[in-house]
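Need the bound structure for nicotinamide-adenine-dinucleotide, inputs here:
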Amino acid sequence: MALNALDRHLVLVGFMGAGKTTVGREVAERLGRPFVDVDDELERAHGPIWDVFAREGEQAFRSLEADFVRRVCAGREPSVVAVGGGAVETRGLLRELDAFVVWLDVDIGTAWRRVQGSRRPLAQDDAEFQRRFELRQPLYREVADAVAGDAEGVVLAAAGVRHEPGSLRELGELVPGDGPVALVADAIVLGIYGPRAQAALATRLVSTHELPPGEPAKQAAVAQRLWGELRLDRGGTVVALGGGCTTDVAGFVAATYLRGVPWVAVPTTLVGQVDAAIGGKTAIDVPAGKNLVGAFHWPARVVVDETLLATLPERERRQGLAELVKTRLLAGRDLDVRGAAAYKSAVCLRDPYDRGERRWLNLGHTFAHALEAAADFELPHGEAVALGLLAALRLSGRDTAEVERELDPRPVRVDPERAWEALLRDKKRERDAINVVLLSDGGPVVEERPAAEVRRELERLIV
Ligand SMILES: NC(=O)c1ccc[n+]([C@@H]2O[C@H](COP(=O)([O-])OP(=O)(O)OC[C@H]3O[C@@H](n4cnc5c(N)ncnc54)[C@H](O)[C@@H]3O)[C@@H](O)[C@H]2O)c1
Ligand SMILES: [Zn+2]
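Answer from helper R.:
Posting the output first, comments after.
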């Protein structure tokens, strides 16, 4: 079973009327992949499906369909492929493909309303429709790596993200496989959610590892201690329960222990749920800088349970709010936690190794990092990001009202010279013109701006 659609075809299955074409097109657009609608392509090549059925029978059609699906999925470029509702009736077809299969689920009433009266061979009478629907439900369930109800759900599934209130209770089933599990959490999170997570993992749990809360968890010494404590073989899984500090260090340890074991992230902060736990970047801090040592190691699953945020202190919630507002600006529309997690998932699936579009996620961060460094990291990241967003919006010639209203950024008292030096250090080779992420009418862009202009905007953030 595939765990995600990273570097793999994403195949959408589901009953007629589930909306595979509409959803498939949207998912392909979000993931920046080609979209192939198998029914459309077959109609183009062989005429209306109705006629093929009438002329040659259903079996002949299924075999044309299977050949075509195999051919598309043999292509190298990962695509989004919507297959006909009946493709599951071709034994073994969807299992043999090296693809991530998502079942787009629909209730029978909605499906019937959508297809009634259309010229689809199997949509001609109510009773036959219902019979097929019931026949296929178990087949879809059997071939699917994940189930979704809309485009956002498919994108989340493609990244291995499960968003469901209360899912901590099901953690035992949500950790892929049936091997042993090592639980990693900081002292605070362990105090609140440790017993529930341990109960959910039940007999799979072999050890629990406590971290210091906050950034001190991301020290090499902590990673080293975990390497020494873990007793997993390659069939084992590291489960990281906590904020970005926990998922960063536990993910890094999972990436390096035995040259890599699978890991599952259960983010418990807003920062974690919309940002840190998604996308497979893991890291620790070293004296030369934050996040300087790490690995790309995509989590086998990310379990987003928003009910866990109920205990999060307001101060921590505000950190995440800054990233949520950043994501809304990037997406150009209002987003909740699920929407923001899906946005980050899509960007990371498009650019898993940070070679291009993933830089968009740094909107405002060039300024934020400079202010944080000039404040000796006493300035919380979220507050720095809120200020950085102001600068990015101003440089983009955009209204700052939403950021002011939601995040209320206040200029900080730091040495402007130190902040500027830090910004230049961050940008290494760039001196006269500086690359910054900006917003354009077509969405985010990375653009060169004159150093003097960038410096002026940085200084407006400082009292
Ligand atoms: N890997 C990535 O892509 C990525 C992206 C963004 C940020 N990060 C990293 O994430 C880190 C920041 O993460 P964070 O803001 O989640 O901080 P964090 O992990 O330190 O958590 C913040 C505090 O909240 C507590 N806490 C966590 N969940 C709680 C809950 N549900 N109830 C009560 N208390 C809770 C923790 O014990 C901690 O004290 C930084 O190190 C940053 O570099 C990584
Ligand atoms: Zn950030």
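Comments: The longest helix spans residues 126-143. The mean pLDDT is 95.
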